[in-house]
Specification:
Layout (H helix, E strand, L loop, with lengths): L2 E5 L3 H12 L3 E6 L25 H14 L4 E3 L3 E5 L3 E4 L4 E3 L2 E4 L3 E3 L15 H5 L7 E4 L3 H12 L4 E4 L9 H9 L4 E2 L2 E9 L2 E8 L2 E7 L1 E4 L3 E3 L22 E3 L12 H21 L2
Helix pairs in contact: 1-6, 4-5
């Protein structure tokens, strides 16, 4: 029975592994962090997963783990795949090399970075980690989508001072998130661009520009949530020229998940479906070459 390596343990990767097992193959799942992937970054209830109204990300992660265990799918957490040599040898960061005739690659997404002076002061911490900090200064959040608004809501509900800035005057965040931000009276600066960040004793100074006027914000933390981009390991898949990764970047590599979906259509549901389609295509491909 053919083995397939599934790289990535988010919803798409888990879905793919389950479907591969159901279709008669032997998937082995590798996740560089923990099962759940980007679900670990979601703190508010998930409102749009059919059949599971307002399930929390933590609950969903536990269900994914149980599903994998039920199907007896081997899972290796903390194992990062870095290359697929000669379309048959999976190379792990630990130095281990394993033969797989095909791999399913669910790379997930990463936060898009701002290339500005002082970018080293942009925090890489999660909202949960920031909540554990002791500070009286505001927290500056850059962005107008769900992730920016979700972070602002969670911090404000914990009685932290929050400032939102966004380069446009309209937002991509869900309407309920926008309503909650208004209800919490979180200040929002529109048509505002973060220009640079400097560190001074006891604070960061975020310099911004709004309609030709300079603004300066003394803050404790700068969080950038301006969108996501495919988090590609070049040894597994060539770097894409756009925000969408090809389904078959290599002959024996099938990509899936949010990275292969156009930005407006990325969701947990589409990741599940992408995993199913990848599994079925891999099975057909293997049978064709049998």
């Amino acid at each position: 029975m053919a083995q397939v390596a599934v790289i990535g343990g988010g919803p798409g990767g888990v879905s793919c592994a389950i479907w591969l097992k159901r279709l008669g193959l032997e998937p082995v799942l590798y996740e560089r962090g923990h099962i759940g992937g980007q679900l670990h970054d979601i703190s508010l209830p998930i409102p749009d997963l059919p059949g599971e109204p307002l399930i929390t990300a933590r609950e969903l992660i536990e269900r994914l783990k149980r599903h994998l265990k039920t199907w007896e799918i081997p899972v290796f957490e903390g194992q990062e795949a870095i290359a697929y040599r000669d379309d048959q040898i999976l190379v792990l960061k630990s130095g281990q090399e394993v033969y797989y005739p095909h791999i399913a690659y669910a790379p997930g997404l990463r936060i898009r970075e701002l290339d500005i002076p002082g970018r080293e002061w942009i925090t890489q911490q999660s909202t949960s980690e920031i909540l554990n900090m002791n500070t009286d200064l505001p927290i500056l959040i850059v962005g107008g989508g769900d992730r920016a608004f979700e972070a602002a809501i969670r911090l404000a509900q914990a009685k932290r001072s929050v400032i939102l800035i966004h380069r446009r005057d309209h937002f991509r965040a869900r309407p309920d998130f926008q309503a909650k931000v208004q209800q919490l009276h979180i200040p929002i600066y529109v048509h505002t661009y973060l220009q640079s960040i400097e560190s001074v004793p006891g604070a960061l100074i975020a310099h911004a520009e709004q309609n030709g006027h300079e603004l300066s914000f003394p803050v404790s933390v700068v969080m950038v949530r301006i969108g996501m981009e495919p988090d590609i390991q070049p040894g597994l898949c060539p770097l894409p020229i756009s925000d969408v990764v090809p389904l078959w970047p290599r002959a024996h590599v099938r990509c899936l998940g949010d990275a292969v979906s156009p930005v407006p259509f990325r969701s947990i549901v589409s990741a599940y479906a992408s995993g199913m389609m990848a599994a079925k295509e891999l099975v057909m491909n293997l049978r064709h070459h049998a």
